[in-house]
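Students often ask why we bother encoding 3D structure as a string. The short answer is that it lets us treat folding as translation between two languages. Here is a chain of 419 residues written in the first language.
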Amino acid sequence: MGRLVKPFRLVQPPRHLAHLVASRSYLSYNINELQDKLDRNPYSYLQVINPDATNNLEAKRGTVDFFREVRKGYDKFLEKGWFEGTDGAGYAVYRQTTPEATYIGVIAVLDLVNCENGGLLTHELTIERREELFATYMQTVGFNSEPILCARNSGHSGEEELDRCISGLISSREADCDFSTTDKIRHSVWWVNPEIENELENALGPLDKLYLADGHHRLASSIKMMHRHPNEPGVDRILAFIVPARDLSILGYHRELRGFDGDLDGLLNKIKQIETVNSVEPLDNRDSCSGHVDIITNQGEWRIVLEKDTTSTRIDAGWLGDNILKPIFNIEDPRNSPNLKYISGSHDKTKNYSNLKSAIEGHSDRIIFSLHPVHIDSIIKVSDAGKTLPPKSTWVEPKLRSGLFVYEFGMQPQEGQDG
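And here it is in the second language, the structure alphabet:
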């Protein structure tokens, strides 16, 4: 079947503009922050993906016509030299240094046929509507600008050689691109040309199985696009960031329930009757572990302590959905329910708690269910078994900046293209 991990021609901002071009996901900005970035930074990749910010567009967001405007914005960045491509195919070693952790891995493309046949294992279901949207977007713009996040498990074939190769590369020369952003994160990139440095190419050869940590919809839509356009060059690959599984940071992904009728005593009594619940007790210690589900309300806070999991496969988010959200609150579709919101966790316990409390402050009809992070071993076990986690079970870091690494494939905007 050939290699899973392959080199690619990298498009990225030049060294002196990288800190201005690369951006967080536009979804992470509130309206005022986004407008401020667009007003103050003409180099930001946000300008490319928000063509309606500076132009009076008739095209609606999410349509093919809108996506064509995105491609036009990208082409303008290329023309102005704000994006530039490498002369040939290769790899990038990327190091992200945050106040809490350091992540080091390889930027490459994955062979999608190989991925589809078991080379990349997933743990999350996708939504058909979002798959279609992303597939239409990519086949219209013709590039990936944000790698999916993939984990290589400890003990894989060639692990020691690959680790040694990456470490040696970083220590042997300065980064080709190195900058820090206002969120106190440092981004360092080393470009590797296999024709000059073939050690990394050889070390990646035995790597034949990865686990998808983040980017399930991007993967599913890329596979869909590949099948629709089998003769287009480059659509059979997807941009990826590959890191050791042991180095991933997995935070809790909490649930905010809306529409609660306020009968807290009645709810707690129902929970106590659940067979797998050992106890429901007032919350006086924020240190938690798997098997603990904390309830935070304006009326008080409690901890649900579950029976010990003898199977090692129980996911607290799944238990919560099966035993509380669905039977008690009639949430049949947790992906699309208007009464269920998701709050990402934080490394800072104080900030994490503050975020949860602020979500319900002044709202007597809201409840927070705070969940302990899922361990990477559980994700790997679920993936190996061909099963899936409940939606929004994990908030995985690192999060990569959009526009720092771009992979162009052969498709370009075409007149009359209907998506």
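Translate back mentally: The two ends are 30 Å apart (CA to CA). Keep this in mind for the problem set.
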